[in-house]
Amino acid sequence: MKLLITGGAGFIGSNFVHYMRKAHPSYTLLNVDALTYAGNITNLDGIESDARYRFVRADIRDAAALEPLFAEGVDAVVHFAAESHVDRSILRPDVFVTANVLGTQTLLDLARTHRVGKFVQVSTDEVYGTLGATGLFSETTPLAPNSPYSASKAAADLLVRAYRETYGLDANITRCSNNYGPYQFPEKLIPLMIAKAMRDEPLPVYGDGLNVRDWLYVEDHCSAIDLVLHKGAPGEVYNVGGRNERTNLEVVSTILEALGKPASLIAHVPDRLGHDRRYAIDADKIRGDLGWAPQYPYERGIRATIQWYVDHPVWMADIASGAYRRKNEGH
């Protein structure tokens, strides 16, 4: 199989590239990434010399750049590429609309034109909005996005559905809960807090810190996408969650305890605009239909994640200094 993977230099995408190389060593992997600020080519160290792997720097909105790649023949597209940071979407919604909506539409057109066998749209539970103290998001929960980021992802999801219904494109949508693990750009909660704690800096926690997220170790997410790619029923949506609900304060406290740092480093800051209170995923469908099950309990996953960042100080320092951008420029 030849896979075109978009956003494969980002957090989840690069983990997926590494996962697929181990799980399916005979597959050809074509990695397309624009290497924007959150893309990091060093996430792919150790794989770039593989004869069955190729990296192409291109923007998913650029049909002319992507056309030759699809013309080579592509069996499936796994679409990770997206602007994904909620705070940035509040400041610049236009960037998120063009990248996440128009970029997805460009890929869908190329997949349809070149008769790609499967299109997997990697989305987010944030398209469902927010939950109260109880309940879970299911695949039939109405879309009710509350941030420009989640609205752009919901729009992209609806385009994927439309291309399935209108053109018969074999497409699936996965909607995951909050991922954590290696290679995550340190603007997101867990790597940001690890980095600050290691430097003995204040850890900024939004509001009262009691916002709840369902945490999913990134390798478990990759295994779910692998199953959807190979076994997903045409047109189906699959929620992927870890059933590991934790408040932000609980997550931060675990990080401080693991690093031997005092709770006095926690600094509450004004809450984010439109901050969703709670997300939680019902993943019974993918468990029952495709046999997926996460392998990393939260306690194991979070400890492994903290240790990865501790063990990779150069990766962390390159992000902080911007040196990773210079490495990106060579591609």
UniProtKB/TrEMBL annotation:
Residues 4-304 form the NAD(P)-binding domain. The keyword NAD applies. It is an enzyme of class 4 (lyase). InterPro entries: dTDP_Gluc_deHydtase, NAD(P)-bd_dom, NAD(P)-bd_dom_sf, Sc_DH/Rdtase_CS. It comes from the Bacteria. GO terms for molecular function: dTDP-glucose 4,6-dehydratase activity. PROSITE patterns: ADH_SHORT. Its cofactor is NAD(+). Pfam families: GDP_Man_Dehyd. Its EC number is 4.2.1.46. CDD domains: dTDP_GD_SDR_e. Keywords: Lyase, NAD. Belongs to the NAD(P)-dependent epimerase/dehydratase family. dTDP-glucose dehydratase subfamily. This is dTDP-glucose 4,6-dehydratase.
